[in-house]
Amino acid sequence: MDEVLYFILGILLICLGVYDLLYTTFAPRGAGPVSGLGSTFIWRIFLGLSKLFKTRKALAGAGIIIIMFTILSWVVMLWAGHSLIYLADGDAVVASTTEVPANAIDRIYFTGYTLSTLGNGDFKGGTNVWRVYTAFISFSGLILITIAISYMVPILSAVTERRSLSIRIASIGDSPQLMLLNSWNGEDFKGLEQHFDGLALEVAKQGQLHLAYPLLHYFYHSEKSVALLLNLASLDEALSILLLYVPEDLRPSNQSLLPLRRAITTFLESLTVITPSPKSLEEPYLAIKQLEEANIPLQLPEASCLDQLCKRRKFLNAMLQYVGWEWEEIANPKFITDLDLREIH
Predict the structure, then answer these.
(1) Which end of the chain is more exposed for a tag (fewer CB within 10 A), N or C?
(2) What is the pTM of this model?
């Protein structure tokens, strides 16, 4: 009876491991069940530690830890599953010289070095069927582990691209209102068009990268200038102000404004898998005081338009809180350095 149970559990573990690995690495949206739940659990631990010790530096290592957990979980599931299958038959693994059946520890050891293609040769399959199965494990293990490691390499490249995009957005202005004020020429906001040029494509690409590599979401940067989610929320808020309060003839052209807005929407949709529901959060305050003080001609938006953006802005708020930021920080200075003129910060 134990042998049948071992065999069934082994098959289930292998199927779960292979499915989780292949879905995470090849599926165009999201992570597998084990990778997804494990990543969320680890991130919440790091988030709790950052709140407990009141430092965001605790979040800096979350991305690397989650990557290591993901790879390790795949290896462990495959290793444990094949070990259980070997335990289902007393003659499955024998010593190479004496052909004495291996004990449980030896079978686990044999499975491990077979998966890694190490091939020490001190144990072997007890029958022809088990020898063929051993060859299959070695071959499939090499392929799956190679896929797992190869999956991680593009993530590091994507992290660099994300930092670059974040700096580009932050350079437009330290806050949603300053993004607009910095481009006000006394007549309109057409100057924003040069900032928006090509930005929609980069934002859309980051959204797709988040779908393909969900682990990207857990790489935290404490510097505001390279924190993409923080700067993207600031940019989206600036676009909301433009669409709600600025007359259409004073805005950037729809050809530059609308594609960027839609690209941000696709980015937000890519985060719905890993960001908690924002239903319990209050909608953040939409500030336009600095624009009013600058005597910029504004229009009063319709109440229905404000209501339509309620869900979006709640989600942005939830997204920021999930990665350790507060909504008020989108209006804080992004660049703090002693290497430049003070008046440009």
Answers:
(1) N
(2) 0.83
